[in-house]
Amino acid sequence: MTDDARAQPLTLAVHGLPSPEAALQSADRRTRLGRIKMLLVLLACAAPVIASYFTYHVIRPQARTHHGQLIQPPRELPGAAELPLQDLQGRAVDPRTLKDQWLLVVVADGACDAVCERLLYAQRQLRESLGREKDRLDRVWLVTGETPPRANLLPALAGAQVLSTPRAALGRWLRPDEGQPLSAHLYLVDPMGMWMMRLPANFEPAKAKRDLDRLLRASSSWDRAGRDPAIVGDGAAR
User: Fold this and answer.
1) H or E stretch including 188?
2) Residue 62 burial by CB count (10 A; 0-12/13-18/19+): exposed, middle or buried?
3) What is the pLDDT of residue 31?
């Protein structure tokens, strides 16, 4: 070290430290950027669900592209107080247990006339025609009136949900086409419990299958086969 360097006084000055105000502004910017990134990630994850819901419940494809009649607006599945349900053993069933699956619904009394038999057969065939997607759709027969389902029908109903309910209560949710009885149609309910389509009284199976295929494809990003076990386990009305 030279004599000149030793002659210089030693200082403890600290250079380049930001002011407290600048440090706070930098921290705020980092916080805002972090929140924006988190929102973008959440939006990217939710986009398929939003798009599917918006397409089928807001924009709604024109009815001419469907064989079935789209219900506008869709009608939500009522609660147990408005739609009391019972299984074949007479136990109360909460309508919430029907959610989280697509439902293909037949409405008829237990005597089940020729129209009822035709619809139950078509219901079963349409589900089977969906191949590997069939587990996303359940068959439901809502039995009206006091007559229980005929015993000879039960083998063909394996895997279906057979529930009884008063016709008057059911009529506040499902509606037939003008001039038709409630038992003339197959009714389609989405996994959120919204009745959103009614097949014509004399529908064409091939065209009805195309409707189902379109709807299942459109909902594939957010709908999965099977129900929430917690809801199913809590299904019986207390």
Assistant:
1) strand 186-189
2) exposed
3) 79
Residue whose C-alpha is closest to residue 163's, from 107, 218, 201: 107
The fold of the 62-233 domain, in CATH, is: Glutaredoxin (3.40.30)
Q: How far apart, in whole angstroms, are the C-alpha atoms of residue 56 and residue 94?
A: 26
Query: Considering Cα of 217, then 219, then 223, then 225, what sign does the dihedral take?
Result: negative
Confidence band for 35, pLDDT divided at 50, 70 and 90: confident
From CA 165, how far away is CA 36, in angstroms rounded? 50
pLDDT digits (tens, 9 = 90+) for 169-199: 999 999 999 999 999 999 999 999 999 999 9
Main-chain dihedrals φ then ψ at residue 72, nearest 5 degrees: -125, 115
Q: How many CB atoms lie within 10 A of CB 85?
A: 24
Mean pLDDT (the chain, rounded): 83
Which among 151, 102, 98, 156 is positioned nearest to 124, based on CA atoms? 156
Select from 176, 169, 121, 161 the least CA-distant residue to 145.
169
Strand residues in 53-182 grouped as ranges (E): 69-76, 85-86, 92-93, 102-109, 137-144, 161-164
Number of residues that this document lists for the chain: 238
Name residue 58's amino acid: V
How many CB atoms are closer than 10 A to CB 58? 8
The Cα 113–Cα 144 span in angstroms is 13
Residue 102, token pair as written in the block = 């697509």
Closest CA to 220 of 52, 42, 67: 52
- CA 107-113-116 angle, 5° bins: 35
